[in-house]
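Why this split exists: single-chain examples teach little about how molecules sit against one another. For that reason, every record in the complexes split bundles all components of an assembly together and asks for one structure covering all of them. Below is a record exactly as it appears in the raw files.
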Amino acid sequence: MLSRTTEYALRAVLYLAKSGGRPHTTQAIAEAVQVPEGYLAKVLSTLARAGVLNAQRGPSGGFTLARPPERVTMLDVVDALDALPEIKECPLRLPEHTPVLCPLHRRLDEMVTTMRRTLAATTVAELLAESVEPRACEFPPVAKPTVRGRG
Amino acid sequence: MLSRTTEYALRAVLYLAKSGGRPHTTQAIAEAVQVPEGYLAKVLSTLARAGVLNAQRGPSGGFTLARPPERVTMLDVVDALDALPEIKECPLRLPEHTPVLCPLHRRLDEMVTTMRRTLAATTVAELLAESVEPRACEFPPVAKPTVRGRG
DNA sequence: GGTACAGCGGATATACTTATCGTCAAATGC
DNA sequence: GCATTTGACGATAAGTATATCCGCTGTACC
């Protein structure tokens, strides 16, 4: 339903929110949330461009949340990527379906709207708070001392 | 959100429901609902295999609805293709996320469930009934065109 | 049986999403 | 300045959804 890319982005944002304010590198996030590092790099860049994350280069750099978790919604993340379609006209472009959509596309539009509302109503902070009980959305331990370089 | 294939399928089913019980060929449907004929052929086959349509070969053959429109829901069509994901476990497969999902995926699962309910609650017959006229309670912001087609 | 119609199924092409890789540019510390 | 860290960006590959093509099979009618 939501793309894999969006799933990755949500996981990454949640991880950053949970891990406090200091920057985390792409590599660290990728290992923690189990997402291909090279691909995650692009996703994180997109989130930074959209203003959801801050990017900091150089030693002890990385990504941080651009706002406190209470002010980042799931919709912010979803919209940063490409996300939800707007159904504002019938794909057939029949004149009689504008501006009032035909019943089929009215239904579909309503579903999208409902999703938007749900996403907009849920902040990252809420997700974190809920995850205290039952057991948190823990991310796998990063036990392995990594060798530099990719892969 | 829903795939293009699903959109095609919904249009085709709606067309068949609207056009009465006699068989319609792939070509006729494709022209009517503006979908690439070769591709639609596969979609219609899938719908027939799923029991939503009946297929009849030979002269004056084609596709018909397998049940009266009152007993075909949008969900029947969507499910016939591949459609909505089931989010029954966290993609990270963390044991502590089963059987209770983490808050993130619980939200996503709820959204899918809501969509399913909406789709299941809407029959093809309802869509047809509504498409006769825009509902009285709706006031399009633009002057109404004189001629009105069907939806 | 023969012929025309229309769906069936496999092979192939195109487009978009997802993933990988290499090179560059900015930040930090010496 | 120079070396190192780390994100930015572009090119490319792999995978999946979408679309096209063509020969085959079942059906109706004569």
